[in-house]
Amino acid sequence: MAKKRFIVSVVAAIFFILSACSNGDTPESAQSTTTTASTTDTSPLESTTPSETTTTEAPADALEPTLETDGTLRIVSLSPSATELLFAIGAGSNVVAVDAYSYYPPEAPVTDLSGWDPNVEAVLSYLPDLVVTANDSNNLVDSLTQVGVDVLINAAPADMESGYDALIRLGQAVGRANEAMEFAETFKADIEAALSRSPQLPMRVYHELDGNYYSASSMSFIGDVYAALGATNIADPADADGYGYPQLTEEYIIEADPELIVITDQVSYDAEDVAARPGWENITAVRNGHITVVDADIASRWGPRLPQFIETIVDVLWDIRDAVNDAP
Fold first, then answer.
1. How crowded is the C-beta side of 122, counted as CA atoms within 13 Å?
2. Does an H or E element contain 186, and which?
3. Is the pLDDT higher at 200 or at 323?
4. How many CA atoms lie within 13 A of 221 on its CB side?
5. What's the rounded Cα separation, in Å, for the pair 277 and 126?
6. Are 20 and 26 in contact (CB under 8 A)?
7. Could you report the per-residue pLDDT of 43-66, keeping only the tens digit for each?
8. Is 128 in contact with 3 (CB distance < 8 Å)?
9. CA distance linking residue 220 with residue 209, whole number of Å
10. How many CB atoms are located within 10 Å of the residue 328 CB?
11. Is the pTM of this model over 0.85?
């Protein structure tokens, strides 16, 4: 099979939290771009930090196919988000191995491969033609391309629109361009349908990624969801660099006084623990009991299940609106 070696650079915030990362991903695909090269490069919102983000302008021919396939392409995915997307666009039969946190969909061939700390020899044991990852750890890209294996970096999108673009590029890379475009249309329609139900409450929202107070600003696809729902994201003023996942302080959060606090189900604490934090008792969200727990897999992965996260938040916003309207 004739193949082109390529690099995909991403405009993405790949941060992050122990929960989303331990989960398999975080937002993973911002504006991805493709170029050909004789050497290489590549992340999970799983395994990087704010200082590791990169930005690259998309070349005019970025939408041209980057990899020729003959139906026998062997793919290894080290990114849970990419795994979900690969199956969604019909490339699941080409996926021969996925990392330990790519446990969705159920038919994904889960292994003990790591997206955080990838072992090149272990990856190569699956004889891949293409490896999809959310970032470049352990010199993964150079090591694989030196032996003729293509690598696609599929990092967390900075917003929903760039997420659709990255999805299409993923499809092109695996010979599923048409399927990717069709799925992107359906995916976008599902997201827009979920967003259309929002009561558009201009509430102050704090989305907490982990116990170190990393949050998701409007420069991330998670924050982009809140913006589309009409909410005010308290993390935005703290994200002057536009990274997408700023680390806040307790003092900052208390002063910002969020009206809704969102945490995930993969942190080591619950809503009651958040409410019991010293000094948090006067935060509006705590005082009114508006602390919501969401599924970390669904909330932190750019993938087919994102509409479920939106629907969850929309339901919460309606509950809050109804409670306000019913108050004496």
1. 16
2. helix 177-195
3. 200
4. 37
5. 47
6. yes
7. 224 433 332 333 333 333 333 445
8. no
9. 12
10. 2
11. no
